[in-house]
Design a protein that fits this description.
With 322 residues, this protein is mainly alpha-helical. The chain has helices spanning 2-9, 22-25, 63-69, 73-80, 88-114, 119-139, 149-157, 167-171, 183-197, 204-207, 231-246, 260-269, 276-280, 290-306; strands at 208-210, 217-221, 224-225. The radius of gyration is 19 Å and the shape is globular.
Length: 322
């Protein structure tokens, strides 16, 4: 299912008005933390509250919020790596990999569409899809074109060298595939991700706890395996919850006002409108029981992520970190 593929991307998913003041968008911005950060000044939803976006810094929002709305991801990348204690290395890697992966995702979706899939969305949103691709290319300018894919991947892997520990990147070290994992350490890593992630989609391998046999992997929510629904429904509900927490403006008319998640789904699958649940369910048949399961679960999941209630994602017997 495409929904499962979306979950693995890590950073997922309108008519575009011409960009005014393009020179202002491309202004030189220092890479030092604490300096003004290039959000989209014309998008009132960029920052919470009434913060002046022209003087906003990366410290004013979660790094995920900043990444999702950054006009220039190269500037985000340079500033984020200066804040490893906030998960900056992890999110710099996410931005780098997102931009590195754009063309391959689009090639895959174009191939699938050539086979006749997703034609309903494509016919309705062909122009929006193209505008979303152009917007993502603008945001990734300077980050996707530096060297080959191999050299960029090596650069991303070396970001932690000589820097303070990043709790999000370090959290992945507790997942030693094929060996017994300490559930308490995994719970602590999951807590760090929920605390600092700012609505970024929860990695499935932090949610999957090993069974007593050391081999089976199980996801939990509210003391139920897969939240009491099918695994597919749980994964899709996680996508919708992430979209909810990141914020969706269904009435937005400009691609520059969209988050990376929204743009990604539009540019890749031509899914360019609708609620968070509608977008997550785009590849699910209308008569599938998964639809009702997702709609039932997305509200509680969204609330748990917003309230940072890590205990709701832990298996029975695993104590929530303090």
């Amino acid at each position: 299912m495409i929904g499962s593929a979306l979950l693995c991307v890590g950073v997922l998913v309108w008519y575009a008005m011409p960009r005014e003041n393009e020179a202002e968008n491309n202004r030189d911005t220092s890479s030092n933390a604490g300096t003004a950060f290039p959000f989209d000044e014309r998008n009132p939803a960029t920052l919470p509250g009434q913060k002046d976006q022209a003087t906003a810094t990366l410290e004013d929002v979660s790094l995920n919020h900043a990444m999702e709305r950054a006009v220039r991801l190269r500037v985000f990348y340079e500033q984020a790596i200066q804040q490893p204690e906030r998960g900056g290395i992890y999110f710099a890697k996410q931005a780098g990999l997102f931009c590195l992966d754009l063309k391959s995702k689009w090639d895959y979706s174009d191939t699938e569409r050539a086979k006749g899939k997703f034609m309903t969305y494509f016919r309705r949103n062909e122009q929006r899809m193209q505008e979303a691709r152009e917007e993502l290319e603008r945001r990734c300018d300077g980050l996707s074109g530096l060297g080959s894919a191999q050299t960029r991947f090596v650069e991303l892997k070396s970001l932690e060298t000589g820097r303070p520990p990043d709790p999000l990147s370090r959290g992945f070290e507790v997942i030693n595939f094929g060996k017994q994992v300490n559930a308490e350490r995994q719970a602590a890593a999951l807590k760090a991700f929920i605390d600092l992630g700012g609505g970024h989609q929860l990695p499935s391998h932090l949610l999957q706890f090993q069974g007593a046999d050391g081999l089976s992997m199980t996801m939990w929510f509210d003391n139920k395996v897969d939240a009491g629904v099918s695994r597919e429904a749980f994964q899709l509900a996680l996508i919708a919850a992430s979209l909810n927490v990141n914020g969706i403006d269904e009435g937005a008319t400009r691609v520059s006002a969209q988050t990376l998640q929204q743009l990604d789904m539009c540019a890749t699958w031509a899914v360019c409108e609708g609620s968070a649940v509608d977008r997550a369910l785009f590849d699910v048949p209308e008569n599938s029981p998964v639809r009702a399961e997702v709609r039932q679960l997305v509200g509680p999941l969204t609330d748990a992520i917003r309230r940072k209630e890590v205990s709701r994602f832990l298996p029975p017997g695993v104590k929530a970190p303090s």
